[in-house]
Amino acid sequence: MPRLAGRAEAERQMSPCEKALTTATASGALPQGTPQLQYYVTELTAPLAWIDVAGQCTDRFAEGALRNAQSKTVVSLLADKYGQAAPEVTPARLDGVTSLKIDTSALDDMALAEDRAGFALEVLAARGQTAGATLSLSDMHKAAAQQLVSLTDAARGSAGSASHADPRQKVYAIDNLLANPVAIADNASGQNVPTAAAIEMDCARAEIAAVTGTQSKPDTDTAMILAALAAKHAYTAMQLGYPSSDAALFR
């Protein structure tokens, strides 16, 4: 049968993953010479779109979470130029979340990462040498850790499983942080970065690894919730001075 040129392509429906990727990368597809204000307006939709990518696209969880923080940083810089409000550094907790469909081992690993970050920030805040290390930030991590433990308990209880051991150790070895309270070598980026920023990014990366390391992938809603949690830590890290370049984030 004769075929109309382009008809099949026009009738093809994009998948949810393709739609999210198209929105997330729209600013990068603008032609050279596009006014920067138009680029800024287009980039405003990218952060949420990257969370959609994390939830909708198989094997793009890490990219979605980190690029959410990266795109927020771009928006923040452009917003300042045009006198607009920058994206807020919002609390990285799981307020209002009552269940998550993911292996409980992943939630345990995330709770451990949150508790470790909270302890490190608490100790550094008490010493008063580390910019960005505050008791409020420490408390936020500890609150998130408690929420993750509670979600694990709820999941195991509903499944009829035995009670599980709390993964939080409460106290951690942080000799390297104490020896480098202002800036520290970051193995992931290969750069020296502000110490509080390194703590936040280490937490984000640990949470991403916990999710991507599960044998059974989380459902879309769960992936989006957990991507947003990790992305908030990554964005906080960038606001504290962690490099936002591809070379630093995706080595």
Description:
The model has no long low-confidence stretch (mean pLDDT 92). 59% of the residues lie in helices and 3% in strands. Strand 1 and strand 2 form a beta hairpin. The protein is mainly α. A two-stranded antiparallel sheet has the order 1-2. It contains eleven helices and two strands; from the N terminus they run H-H-H-H-H-H-H-H-E-E-H-H-H. Helix 5 crosses helix 10, helix 6 packs antiparallel against helix 7 and helix 6 packs antiparallel against helix 9. The radius of gyration is 20 Å and the shape is globular. It starts with 6 loop residues before the first helix and ends with a helix.
Characteristics:
mainly alpha, 2 strands, two-stranded antiparallel ribbon, single chain, globular, 251 residues
Topology:
Elements lengths: L6 H5 L4 H9 L11 H8 L2 H11 L4 H21 L22 H24 L7 H24 L16 H5 L3 E4 L4 E4 H18 L7 H20 L6 H4 L2
Number of strands: 2
Adjacency order of strands in the biggest sheet: 1-2
Q: Strand fraction band? A: under 5%
Mean pLDDT: 92
Main sheet properties: 2 strands, antiparallel
The coarse silhouette is globular
The unreliable regions are none
- Helix proportion range: 55-70%
Summarize the structure.
With 251 residues, the chain is mainly α. It is built from eleven helices and two strands, in the order ααααααααββααα.
